[in-house]
User: Which sequence fits this backbone?
């Protein structure tokens, strides 16, 4: 009478062993750098095919005010804990300055009032998080393109880098500080704005006060919050861990249009 | 088409699948497997579903979550509409790398990679999504140009009329023999047709609908399925349907003679047993 039970136990054991050997093999393959760089090849394919199909000018869909989400979630940092940021926040960002520099002819230092006086755009758009959820909000902010024109980009500038007030991970070398980089062409897209207003009110701290980037045709992690400094750069290999952003340094795709 | 070859035991070897079908089949099988596991990895980042364009976090159509039991242990919970189920061990809470209970939507054995890593999951998913789409496009192009898709996969009127009888035979695991086994029967045709022209294209389509870049250009298509979150929910439901198909498909292969079936999908040659009625 024990024989079928033994056989069942043996089968179960064999199955468990097979599964764990397969899983270990999978993990080995998944961890290999060569496999990873092959998989990353698809990102180039995605980016260039999107460039071809979508084009530079296509606008992200804009929604009516009735579509605005009452429960827009705030991800990542929701209140930077540095003393410098807290001091700025308690003064309603009157002492905050946005530095625009790097590969430009005329570096700018702008107050919040300066930004609010710059060419602006208001849009009600859908925010798509890399996690999978979406929410809709109204954003108003200074268009990045005219600001960069005012700063006069040098011809070598290929990317625009955003340096933020928040550190998502505490590190000694500063690689845990949030930063992002985007292509110059995307910086000049009409919907790319430095938003200081959300749903008709000053941008809340949880959503990146005093300004956050809106890059409507890509995922949320590209849209840096708490932006303090903007730099035009020729390449981003020297920033952070060299992949072009805080999350990119931790394995996310630099091109986040998918 | 290659000529039939007689084989031992009165069997007849027939050339069942041309090379392009065999290559496409195995690339497809590999892609679907990787896409399923990496898809579940991606889903771990936000295991909740909604209809429409946006999330309503407090009222998901379905969600996997966890909460702490009275004794402090985490419990996995599946929410379907108004109903809640304890799914500890599989959904919501399952064994971590050190055999400790870990809060994660799907268990380690069901995700690629095993540990929670959204970036890596997306890398695997998009690479194999490209492979699946290009492979599928090549298969459909070759199948349509040569007329093979129509010849092999569209059921004849006579087959459709006999669909219930065929279903009854299948449920009794009585499969066609001899000349009848040269072609797909009506159930095979309908199943394969709904996968290659229905579910797989729906997967690619709803997947593309989730891209914010493509949505900027083609948001009419996203609206066609009810919005981005609807596309995401349909993407998951269609994946579930493909899993169901794969389970039945593999079960049928095992029941109908796995060696012969595997040989025909690998070398192209399928052995027909002598037809009892005609011999």
Assistant:
């Amino acid at each position: 009478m024990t024989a079928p039970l033994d056989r069942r136990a043996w089968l179960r054991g064999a199955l468990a062993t097979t599964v764990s050997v397969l899983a270990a093999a999978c993990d080995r393959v998944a961890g290999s750098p060569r496999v990873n760089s092959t998989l990353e090849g698809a990102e180039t394919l995605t980016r260039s095919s999107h460039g071809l199909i979508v084009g530079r000018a296509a606008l992200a869909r804009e929604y009516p005010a009735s579509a605005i989400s009452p429960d827009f979630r705030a991800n990542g940092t929701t209140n930077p804990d540095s003393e410098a940021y807290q001091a700025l926040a308690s003064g309603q960002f009157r002492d905050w300055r946005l530095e625009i520099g790097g590969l430009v002819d005329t570096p700018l230092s702008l107050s919040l009032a300066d930004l609010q006086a710059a060419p602006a755009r208001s849009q009600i758009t859908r925010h798509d998080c890399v996690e999978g959820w979406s929410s809709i909000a109204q954003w108003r902010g200074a268009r990045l393109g005219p600001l960069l024109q005012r700063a006069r980009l040098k011809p070598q500038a290929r990317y625009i880098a955003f340096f933020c007030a928040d550190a998502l991970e505490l590190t000694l070398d500063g690689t845990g500080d949030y930063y992002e980089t985007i292509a110059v062409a995307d910086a000049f897209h009409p919907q790319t704005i430095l938003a200081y207003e959300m749903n008709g009110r000053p941008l809340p701290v949880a959503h990146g006060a005093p300004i956050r980037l809106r890059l409507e045709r890509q995922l949320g992690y590209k849209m840096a919050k708490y932006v303090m400094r903007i730099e035009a750069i020729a390449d981003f290999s020297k920033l952070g861990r060299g992949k072009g952003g805080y999350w990119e340094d931790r394995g996310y795709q630099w091109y986040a249009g998918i | 088409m290659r000529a039939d070859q007689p084989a031992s035991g009165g069997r007849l070897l027939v050339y069942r699948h041309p090379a392009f079908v065999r290559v496409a089949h195995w690339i497809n099988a590999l892609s679907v497997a990787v896409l399923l596991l990496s898809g579940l990895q991606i889903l771990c980042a936000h295991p909740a579903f909604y209809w429409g364009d946006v999330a309503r976090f407090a009222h998901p159509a379905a969600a996997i979550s966890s909460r702490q039991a009275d004794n402090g242990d985490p419990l996995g919970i599946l929410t379907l509409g108004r109903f809640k189920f304890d799914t500890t061990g599989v959904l919501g809470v399952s064994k971590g790398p050190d055999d400790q209970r870990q809060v994660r939507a799907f268990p380690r054995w069901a995700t690629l990679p095993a540990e929670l890593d959204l970036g890596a999951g997306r890398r695997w998913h998009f690479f194999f999504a490209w492979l699946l789409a290009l492979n599928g496009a090549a298969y459909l192009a070759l199948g349509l140009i040569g007329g093979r898709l129509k010849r092999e996969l569209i059921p004849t009127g006579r087959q459709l009329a006999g669909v219930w009888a065929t279903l009854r035979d299948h449920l009794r695991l009585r499969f066609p023999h001899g000349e009848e086994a040269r072609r797909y029967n009506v159930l095979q045709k309908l199943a394969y047709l709904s996968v290659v022209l229905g579910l797989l294209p729906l997967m690619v389509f709803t997947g593309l609908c989730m891209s914010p870049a493509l949505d900027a250009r083609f948001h009419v298509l996203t609206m066609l399925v009810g919005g981005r979150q609807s596309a995401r929910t349909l993407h998951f439901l269609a994946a579930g349907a493909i899993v169901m198909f794969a389970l039945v498909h593999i079960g049928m292969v095992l029941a109908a003679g796995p060696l012969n079936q595997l040989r025909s999908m690998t070398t192209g040659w399928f052995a027909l047993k002598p037809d009892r009625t005609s011999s």
